[in-house]
Amino acid sequence: MDEGKLYLGIDYGGNAVKMGLVDSYGNLSGRTSQPTSDLLDKVACRAFAADVAEFVHGLGIYSSELGGVGLAIPGIVNHGTYMTPNVKADWPLLMQCLEQALTKTSIAVLNDANAAALGELWMGAGENARSVLLVTLGSGLGSGLIVEGQVISGGNGAAGEVGHMTVVPGGRPCKCGREGCIERYASARGIVQNFIEAGKSGEFDSSQFTNHEPANDTDALAVFDAARAGDPRGKRALAEMADKLGFALAQVACVVDPDVILLGGGIAAGADLYIDALRAAYRSYCFEACAATEIRCATLLDAAGVYGAARYAMLAAPRDKAQRDWLDPDFGL
Ligand SMILES: [Zn+2]
Predict the structure, then answer these.
(1) 321 exposed, middle or buried (CB, 10 Å; 0-12, 13-18, 19+)?
(2) Average pLDDT for residues 314-320, to the nearest whole number?
(3) Could you count the other beta carbons within 10 Å of the beta carbon of residue 309?
(4) CB within 5 A of ion ligand 1: which residues?
(5) d(Cα 320, Cα 23) in Å, to the nearest integer?
(6) What pTM was estimated for this model as a whole?
(7) What torsion do the CA atoms of 182, 264, 217, 74 make, to the nearest 10 degrees?
(8) What separation in Å is there between the alpha carbon of 142 and the centre of ligand 1?
(9) In this predicted model, what pLDDT tens digit does every residue of 31-53 receive, in sequence order?
(10) CB-based burial of residue 191 (10 Å sphere; 0-12 exposed, 13-18 middle, 19+ buried)?
């Protein structure tokens, strides 16, 4: 990385595109957010690239002051091929347009969950760690994995896809086509399903049920409210979530042994209701050597992807030989 330069982080999500400029000390400036649009042809890609250039230049920054651009995308990044089922974009074309609009700036692309994990490792709740697993609990369950400072993509670009680890063989059907994935039990959707099944189980006295009912199949906040009000369905829903997620995290620890496991996403906002049970479940299932691994909440919230994308650009930026010689070899980029 060039310490005098600024790096642009672009977090291209399914609903919003967030951007910000970050220097090598982690100072973030000029954050912005705009709705996601389809980028399938030259006209759309050029228009987006022009917006990005305007954002950078509008902050008084010349293209020559940019060290690189990190682009986080919601899907699989696998050796120059990209699969983003929730966003329609021609990524290679977009990269070309960005390079042109920002005068030959280099673009580094990574998965958005890995970007968030890298951001947390660098400037958030993973500071001082070298290996971190970030589990993002939203309507689904995403995860990013950094091991020994390296973004881990894997042979198929699917490393660290914790959401589709099987925790209940033959269990609830998942959108991935299989059954019993952890996402079906520990995401917002999973928590609501836990709640509904608890209500139907006949195990509880319905006179103890509160009027906190989920308004839709991802309304986990209503389940949190129910649990706080003492509704046995809410308590059971979160106990089940904690137990199964603790089990899944314990299996991950056996393979990659992260220094810290972080929880992000909207469901992390209710962590006070389940984090003790989650830690206890993790400890009860994990290999003894990993028992002390901390599980805590992420801190950068929705800025994590921008920080991580910019950091990735820093680490991937072309260097001359003199710079390469002093580069931290741990990052290997
Ligand atoms: Zn699945």
Answers:
(1) exposed
(2) 72
(3) 34
(4) 164, 174, 176, 181
(5) 19
(6) 0.89
(7) -80
(8) 11
(9) 899 999 999 999 999 999 999 99
(10) buried
- How many CB atoms within 10 Å of residue 86? 12
Distance CA 310, CA 6 (A): 9
pLDDT per residue over 150-190, tens digit each?
A: 888 888 888 888 999 999 999 999 999 999 999 999 999 99
Side by side, the strands of the sheet bearing 132-137 are 150-151, 141-147, 132-137, 260-264, 294-297
Give the Å distance between the CA of 141 and the centre of ligand 1.
Answer: 10
How many Å lie between the centroid of ligand 1 and the Cα of residue 161?
Answer: 9
Tokens of 139: 């309507």
Please tell me whether residue 183 adopts helix, strand or coil conformation: helix
Q: Find the 314 Cα to ligand 1 centroid distance in Å.
A: 33
CA of 181 relative to ligand 1 center, distance in Å: 5
Please give the distance, rounded to the nearest whole angstrom, from the Cα atom of residue 268 to the centre of ligand 1. Answer: 21
CA of 218 to the centre of ligand 1 (A): 17
What domains, with CATH codes, occur in the chain? 6-117+302-326 (3.30.420.40), 130-299 (3.30.420.40)
Tell me the CA–centroid distance for residue 307 and ligand 1, in Å. 28
- Compute the distance between CA of residue 14 and CA of residue 153 in angstroms, rounded to an integer: 20
